[in-house]
User: What shape does this take?
Amino acid sequence: MEKATFGAGCFWGVEEAFRQMPGVTDTKVGYAGGTLENPTYRDVGSDRTGHAEVVQVTFDPALVSYRQLLESFWSLHDPTTRNRQGPDVGSQYRSVVFFHSPEQEREARALMAQLQTSGRFKRPIVTQIEPAAQFYEAEDYHQRYLQKQGLGSCHI
Assistant: This one.
């Protein structure tokens, strides 16, 4: 099993999309990329901690490739808007890939460059690609939130 960590706006819908992918064995929503240890949803929502709302994906690379996860990531949100996804505004909603290995970094950068030149997006991609940061699991009520509410999606 391998891990992948993505920030693409509100983590509820992003988690649900990844959770549905064959080969994904687990998902956790949480916070990464900031300065405050053990942040809460309220802390992160203040837009002062530097954390992004993220989904940590555990996957079986024999069943789903990291590239497939990246392709899904870039199709789930608008990677050309800085610190915003739909009505959600703030650095916690930024587009970010936290890589867990040099191979993941290479693949993320290569696919982002390919997408940038493909014409698929009319504006420059602003997705950040950074080394995996400390992951802080979000509060239990955020885990599989849409599933608990009987919803299949939210903004995506």
User: Anything to note?
Assistant: The chain has one domain: 2-148. The mean pLDDT is 93. Helices lie at 11-19, 41-45, 66-76, 102-118, 145-148.
